[in-house]
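Thread amino acids onto this structure.
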């Protein structure tokens, strides 16, 4: 480095200078989503969480559609066609507000819309995607079942041909957006293997009772899907997907968003801890001046920004068409695990105040317990990486 060139000042909010990796368009996307979340979520989310509800979800969906956040990495059909990095930045900002809001967007765009966009017919795409991109129609994704989570190949939901029609029967569980969805992408066993179906939720025999008594993702709509002799026309099946590769590819796309989103929850808790440590006084001075507190903050900052850097790297690989599912598992395993640890450490910095909804820490910590489990548990991602590293399958 030339002696005349001086590095910029150290930025506590960006200690690694990661913003230098972003283009102006990336920053514009991030700022748009951050501003929306600050205005429409942060002032209310603690109350939503305490009451266990997400009021006005349809209005929120339309607003998210208005800023281009729904299906934003998809091309055409009213979608924004944003880069993978821009989508990731949006997920980070949404989850910094609340995991439930990021889940709404992830399920809409990376699961339901992605399935139709990648595997649907042209008629299905034209019918559903523009209205889903605008937020007019909310979508959900039915894969997990009451007795089948990590082993979707053992699903019991089935579809049989009856003349030209399909008839679906089964149950799906822990379905985000289910009770407010206008369309559900449902995966079912058929004589030809596992297939995906586009199911209008006003179909006879379809119901979606909301799941109550959750202590995580409380500001989110979570439902069971019940399919009792739901009759669908022949063109309801997704023509481009047969077998588990279809739903698993959708999950990989959604997991990528989690890699970023988890760091948003971690950032919120870290910032709360730093602010608290600067002002909370014990023994005559701010606790941020004590070595043990500074050690906690330093360790939290290291893991937070390492996780964001990992997310950036995976985003660049996705944009280049080089991202593998095993690499997504790498990111999801690391970043969610580290995010939970950051939240728990932040709670210790805040002491008893850490359990109060006046601060975001406990809300994020409990939300991340769900994020740790859904779309692949820790154990499943460990086994994905173990198989990739050894060439030996430990799943069965």
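Threaded sequence (396 positions):
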């Amino acid at each position: 480095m030339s002696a005349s060139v001086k590095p910029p000042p150290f930025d506590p909010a960006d200690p690694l200078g990661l913003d230098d990796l972003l283009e102006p368009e990336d920053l514009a996307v991030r700022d748009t989503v951050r501003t929306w979340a600050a205005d429409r979520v942060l002032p209310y989310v603690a109350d939503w969480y305490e009451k266990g509800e997400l009021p006005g979800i349809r209005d929120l969906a339309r607003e998210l559609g208005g800023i281009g956040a729904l299906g934003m990495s998809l091309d055409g059909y009213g979608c924004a066609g944003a880069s993978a990095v821009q989508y990731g930045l949006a997920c980070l900002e949404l989850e910094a507000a609340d995991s439930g809001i990021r889940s709404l967007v992830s399920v809409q765009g990376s699961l339901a819309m992605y399935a139709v966009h990648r595997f649907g017919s042209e008629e299905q795409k034209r019918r559903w995607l523009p209205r889903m991109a605008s937020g007019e129609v909310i979508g959900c994704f039915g894969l997990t079942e009451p007795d089948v989570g990590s082993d979707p190949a053992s699903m019991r939901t089935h579809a049989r041909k009856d003349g030209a029609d399909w008839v679906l029967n089964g149950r799906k569980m822990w379905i985000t957006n289910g009770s407010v969805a206008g369309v559900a992408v449902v995966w079912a066993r058929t004589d030809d293997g596992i297939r995906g179906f586009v199911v209008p939720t006003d179909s006879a025999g379809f119901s979606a009772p909301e799941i109550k008594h959750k202590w995580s993702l409380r500001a989110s709509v979570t439902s069971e899907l019940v399919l009792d002799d739901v009759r669908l026309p022949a063109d309801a099946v997704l023509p481009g997907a047969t077998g588990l590769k279809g739903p698993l590819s959708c999950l990989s796309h959604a997991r990528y968003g989690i890699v970023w989103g988890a760091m948003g929850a971690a950032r919120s808790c870290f910032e709360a801890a730093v602010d608290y440590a600067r002002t909370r006084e014990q023994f005559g001075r701010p606790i941020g001046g004590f070595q043990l507190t500074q050690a906690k903050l330093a360790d939290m900052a290291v893991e937070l920004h390492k996780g964001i850097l990992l997310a950036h790297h995976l985003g660049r690989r996705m944009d280049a068409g080089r991202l593998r599912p095993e690499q997504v598992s790498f990111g999801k395993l690391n970043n969610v695990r580290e995010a939970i640890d950051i939240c728990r450490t932040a709670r210790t910095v805040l002491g008893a105040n850490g359990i109060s909804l006046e601060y975001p820490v406990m809300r994020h910590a409990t939300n991340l317990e769900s994020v740790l489990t859904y779309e692949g548990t820790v154990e499943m991602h460990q086994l994905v990486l173990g198989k990739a590293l050894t060439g030996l399958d430990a799943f069965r």
